[in-house]
Amino acid sequence: MTTAPGLRTTVGDHSTSGSKLVLDLSRVTFLGSAGLAVLVEASQQTKTRGVELRVVAVERAVTRPLEATGLGDVFSVHPSVESAISS
């Protein structure tokens, strides 16, 4: 809840038309509803701007909520930053 606003701002600041945005969540230890809401907003915002959104998720604290909500199928989820950039 405390970091979600910062993530929202960062996504807005780095979503430029025609680019690729990689959100590295590999060190996130908790992903709750506020974080999931920001990810959904980020997905909508990047689609509008023509930006490819990629999410790096390796920790169960992130992968489990993504799977449980079905968002793992919505986002382009990768095991590493390198994989997210190269795909």
Automatic annotation (TrEMBL):
GO molecular-function terms, A-Z = anti-sigma factor antagonist activity
The protein's superkingdom reads Bacteria
- Per UniProt, residues of the STAS domain are 1-87
Q: Fetch the CDD domains from UniProt.
A: STAS_anti-anti-sigma_factors
Q: Which family does it belong to?
A: Belongs to the anti-sigma-factor antagonist family.
Q: What is the protein's name according to its record?
A: Anti-sigma factor antagonist
Which species does this protein come from?
Answer: Lentzea tibetensis
